[in-house]
Design goal:
With 362 residues, the protein is an alpha/beta fold. It contains seven helices and ten strands.
């Protein structure tokens, strides 16, 4: 998570936040910049179904001989589910959060939100380090909730050269062993300049990120982690804002992505449309969209409640959005912001109203 002023002058880089008993970093958005027009993104088109043969010619055809079905009558292959192992529900969005509340465990934080909202978190967001640590289970997370794992990245060369294959395979087996659907958000905000896995720290080479992603995807498949849905999640704007660093250049391809995510916060009073519409326009017709990190900043005069209402209305009007994950924390010790939705009664009322709308019943 990092922030910049509108003039592009960077604020001090954020330090790592505590996750459970581990010190794990989280991620956020950067300053506003003009969203680039989305160029065509790589995609794979499934080959057309072929017929099983052609009619048999005969001077006196037997009544038992039937011509083979034409391509139009051949059985059609079922289209893959949107969202893969975590399917997107038409017309509904899952609402969840990353929870790290001061002085409270994850279990206690989930209980507080359950009392306030009258419902479970549909998605519970956690962060795991790159080195292979993955717990055997997440007992605080209800069976009815989907676990979203933000797994840290690494320099591209450490992945594409095969030296990290054992770490990758170990994480794949651990996630598969959880026996629950998991949204895996690896190497997020790769179009920023604040992580060791972004393009700026890897020779300005988005193609290297794509190679790394595809290698991870292959190893997970080989390890049988078919409960994992892959979430590709850029930042809403790019830093640096240059042509080589456009988020579209990091896209691994439709065959390697189940959900498209995006991080965006209203640090400078940006609207939800400003933060998220470019990613929706680029991928929303092909992939379900998840607002994988978002929250409102308190700019005074009831601004947090007002922004939550804007977000709720924008999601209502944007059917491509299949999930919203709030960055619900007051422990970001290098940030002046409290991202909790219950910092005042008006904000909590707006958040509760959003959670109870049928659009968020996914």
């Amino acid at each position: 998570m990092t922030a910049e002023s509108p003039g592009g002058r960077g604020l001090p880089r954020r330090r790592l936040l505590a996750f459970a008993a581990l010190a794990l970093p989280a991620a956020c958005s950067t300053a506003p910049s003009a969203a680039p027009p989305p160029p065509a993104s790589p995609t794979t088109v499934a080959p057309a179904a072929s017929s099983s043969g052609s009619p048999v010619a005969s001077a006196s055809p037997s009544p038992s001989l039937k011509p083979s079905p034409s391509p139009s009558s051949a059985p059609k292959k079922a289209a893959p589910r949107r969202g893969g192992p975590v399917p997107a529900e038409t017309g509904q969005a899952m609402l969840g959060s990353y929870l790290a509340l001061s002085g409270m465990s994850l279990k206690e934080s989930l209980a507080l939100r359950r009392r306030q909202l009258g419902r479970e978190q549909r998605i519970v967001h956690v962060f795991y380090p790159w080195d292979g640590y993955v717990p055997s289970s997440e007992p605080a997370v209800a069976a009815s909730s989907t676990l979203m794992v933000s797994w840290h990245g690494a320099p591209y060369r450490r992945i594409v050269d095969g030296s990290s294959d054992r770490v990758i395979a170990r994480v794949a087996r651990k996630l598969a062993g959880m026996k629950r659907p998991i949204l895996l958000r690896w190497g997020w905000e790769m179009n920023g300049d604040w992580f060791e896995w972004d393009g700026s720290h890897n020779g300005n080479d988005p193609a290297g990120y794509v190679k790394a992603w595809r290698r991870l995807h292959r190893i997970f498949r080989e390890q049988g982690a078919d409960n994992v849905a892959w979430v590709w999640s850029p930042n809403w704007n790019s830093s640096p804002d240059t042509s080589w660093n456009r988020f579209q250049r990091y896209y691994p391809g439709d065959d390697y992505v189940d959900w498209v995510g995006v991080s965006g916060y209203d640090f400078f009073s940006e609207s939800p449309r400003t933060l998220f519409s470019a990613v929706v326009a680029a991928y929303g017709e092909r992939k379900p969209i998840i607002l994988s990190e978002t929250a409102a900043v308190d700019h005074g005069r009831g601004s947090k409640a007002a922004w939550i209402k804007k977000l709720s209305s924008w999601v209502e009007d944007t059917p491509a959005v299949g999930a919203v994950v709030w960055f619900d924390t007051d422990t970001q010790d290098d940030s002046p912001h409290n991202f909790r939705p219950d910092t005042d009664s008006a904000a909590l009322a707006a958040y509760r109203a959003m959670a109870r709308r049928s659009r968020f019943a996914g």
